[in-house]
Amino acid sequence: MADNNGAASVYGATNPRSSADGVLRFGSVIGLKPEREALYLELHANAWESVTACLARHHVRNYSIFLTELEGRKYLFSYFEYTGSDYERDMRAVAADPEIRRWWRQTDPCQIPLPGRQPGANWHEMEQVFLMR
């Protein structure tokens, strides 16, 4: 895989292509609309149990979202671990869940999708370049 600057990935002990422990790690980034920041923070301060239960059922754990400001713009960074055996199937099931879809109707209008994301994705996935065990 090449990064946005064309540099090729280098895989080694601290940047594994796949995980020996069976855990897939995902990081992604998206913009946050300043006028929707308070709503977004409130939603996540009281995340719906139906949403967190659905994610857990589909092998998502250690899900974190961080907020930062860079050059006057707000960004969200998410990190989660996947412990199942069929990521694509589990993510399709999550996306089809009615409560997840209802949650996204609340959160998506708060976000600003960034260039370079995969077709159909809101969040821009990032490449893992370091892992300390």
Kindly describe this structure.
This protein has a single domain, classed as Alpha-Beta Plaits (2-Layer Sandwich). It contains four helices and five strands. The chain has helices at residues 37-45, 49-57, 87-96, 98-107; strands at residues 24-32, 60-70, 73-82, 111-112, 124-126. Strands 1, 2, 3, 4 and 5 form a five-stranded antiparallel sheet that branches. A hairpin with a 2-residue loop joins strand 2 (60-70) and strand 3. The chain is globular and about 40 Å long.
Number of helices: 4
- Domains (count): 1
Radius of gyration: 16 Å
Tell me the CATH architecture.
Answer: 2-Layer Sandwich
Low-confidence stretches: none
Which percent band covers the strand fraction?
A: 25-35%
What order do the SSEs take from the amino end to the carboxyl end, as H and E? EHHEEHHEE
Assigned CATH class: Alpha Beta
| CATH domain topology | Alpha-Beta Plaits
Query: Can you give the helix content as a percent range?
Result: 25-40%
Measure the end-to-end span. Answer: 23 Å
The major β-sheet equals: 5 strands, antiparallel
* Beta strand count: 5
Please tell me what the overall shape is. globular
Structural class: alpha+beta
Q: What is the averaged pLDDT score?
A: 92
